[in-house]
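Researcher: Good morning. I'm working through a list of sequences from a screen, and I'd like to move beyond sequence-only analysis. For each chain I'm collecting a predicted structure so we can compare shapes side by side. This is the next one on the list. No need for commentary yet; just the structure.
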Amino acid sequence: MSASASSAISKPQSDDHAIWDLIFAFWGSPALLVAHDLKLFSVLGERPRRLEEVCEALKIEPRPASVLLEMLTAFGLVGARDGVFALTSVSKEYLDEKSPISLGGYLDFLVANHKLWSVETLKNAVLKNSPQVGGGKDVFSDPEVMKAFARVFTRAMYAHSIGSALTWPETVDLSEARVLLDVGGGSGAQTVGVLLQWPHLKGIVLDTPPVTVEAAQYIGRFGLGDRIRTVAADMFSDAFPEADVHLYGDIWHDWPKEKGEFLARKSFESLPPGGKIILREVLYNDDRSGPVAAAAYSVDMLLVTMGGQYSRKEMKSLLEDAGFRDVQIGAPGAGYRSLVVARK
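Model: Good morning. Structure tokens for this chain:
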């Protein structure tokens, strides 16, 4: 290198950690999914094990076993002490498939569809502005695609939702309510969580016919069949059943903004005076500069729907424009989702 070229290069003035964090995530996520697929968390859930015991159980060599265990240890999902590996509290609850709130069903979905979250498919989504699931069709608008998708997707969304659904209902006052309508309720996990917290309530899970068939089995696990009924309907074209609380859990982000505006107006018109609307969404801050969870979710929506995440400001304005008042947006509780509550 010549002296003139050398003098033109200055020392970096910024830290590159943010870039490397993204690159490391590119390797970390597959490590998590492979560990899940090999049943590593279930193996450690049975009892703590030494490296050689892990290798024997998974039928893999020490070198790859060490790499997986060290990555999971670095992320706090495995604890290591004196050469013995064990699950941490978070992995016991969310990664051991014996746990009732295991994310296993959702991780299975990610493993089965891993090609969807690739550089190639994301580039196609960016260039074409179209979903890449179901051969480029919007999974929610194509009946045949949705029918095939319903079983695995409903199982994934149950695992995705049940943990937080058992937590957030205690933060909202539903003592005066009588009937909760879970619009696009999928497995009914959110309704289950609400009714376990508020035993005087009845629940209705509204979704497409293929999904409501699947929902019944999840509701039955909690013995709530006498308090929760399913309604097979189109949330956009069919009338809503009578209820005084409308719940949307991770629904509006699946659709373009005008669809969210439509559903807000429809709920406002359907609810009685004093009725409530509740939304669970991963929200951007007001200027859409973060958090990372909202931005990442929007990338996911780019791949699978025609929707995206809202900001807190956008959500408040949308609800007020529909006629709702007293809009309250709580900070994320369990997980990254915010709780949005408004009153008619």
